[in-house]
Design brief:
By secondary structure, this protein is mostly helical. It folds into two domains: 5-24 and 259-431, Tetratricopeptide repeat domain (Serine Threonine Protein Phosphatase 5, Tetratricopeptide repeat, Alpha Horseshoe), CATH 1.25.40; 37-250, 3-Layer(aba) Sandwich (Collagenase (Catalytic Domain)). It is 51% helix and 6% strand. The chain is built from 16 helices and five strands. It has helices at 37-48, 79-94, 116-122, 137-143, 170-185, 210-219, 230-244, 262-272, 278-295, 300-313, 318-334, 339-355, 359-375, 379-395, 399-417, 420-431; strands spanning 67-73, 98-100, 109-114, 129-132, 160-165. A five-stranded mixed sheet has the order 2-1-3-5-4.
Length: 445
Amino acid sequence: MPPAPADLPQRLAPAAAALPPMSRFEAPALRPPQRSNAEIAHDFIELAFWLESGREIPRLSRFEGPITLRMTGQVPEGATEELARLLGRLRREAGLEVLPARADERAGITVEFRSRAEMQATVPQAACFVVPRVSSWEEFRRHRRSERLDWTTLEQREQVAVFLPHDVPRQEMRDCLQEEVAQAMGPLNDLFRLHESVFNDDNFQTVLTGFDMLILRAYNAPELRSGMTRQEVAARLPAILARLNPAGERIAPRPLPPRSPRAWIEATEAALAPGISRSARRQAADRALSIARAEGWRDARLAFSLYLLGRLTRSSEGDLALAAFAEAGLIYARLPGGEVHAAHVDMQMAAFALSMGRHDDVLRLVRRAQPAARASENAALLASLQMVQAEALDRLGRPDEARVVRLDSLGWARYGFGPDERVRARLAEIAALAPEAPRAAAAGG
């Protein structure tokens, strides 16, 4: 993740010409899962039969038959384009046909846009969410404390509502749309250990991955049906995955990972929580790392614990933060599909290198991280990497190259950060990492 604005020294953005048009990604480069089908079956069961709270879901629920969808509320600019792109991918990659609802019918999936403030006043920690058995915000508010919205009582999905904020950057809207629509048609759980999935609260993956599309295809396979128990689904999964993912039959399974203890999940969630003090978040990150080491993990959970500690100590304990980021980067680099996670670490390391005047190191780290940022369609990360790169080029006496890179960063920043003032603020934050050096004009002027 790019450095948080509150954690960096700030100065006013320089005067700039009008920003360039918003950049957009082309078709994603889909990467199939890099693990055995036995491991994926284990993941499927944990995703499909537990909620994020740890409650068990007794029976599989899904839509049976055609799925219809409607968008309502204050639909933001770009949402129709993002939805069309998502539905095209679901059709091609997951075999799911989702049709627009007719004017005279109630949609199976209703995507309703509300203001972020209104949503967080009702569900404080949720950026976006999905609920069953309702089709509007008013219905949700009316029934939100009743059993009607309890996923564990559901045996078949007929109406599901997805609630998204309309007043956020395009990338954040897209990320919410992808994950919540996928959960409306598939599993409901998020697992921190699944580094190659959007079904993970670490938010490194921003669009549905090859793993996610396989899970959705299996979840809606004809061999399964609503109302099946965990044991019934588990009995059918090996044949389903062998049919859908024959390559996974040729990969030797690794030991199956244990479920994450609630103490580690709660510590991680507290370290991420924006509503508590920084010192409390730092203490939570320490607890998460201690638990991860005590469990003997060497997977994404240990790496994320280290990453969180680095994020929460970078402005006060630089040596500790650098060591945490370096260890996290080594772990992510060893994980199949961990490239985007390593790219986030490289962004942090590049910011440190810029602040210390190690400009050649900045360029090396940025070159290594950019392909993964593009492949994962993370415009905010890509823009931040390019902004750091431009500052390093300026300080190496290469202003023409810096100007080209900085201009390209602004198109991605408009997608990733939203309004022009936020783009310019981000540009200023990056520039302030090396405050004593002169810099080129911001928008290519």
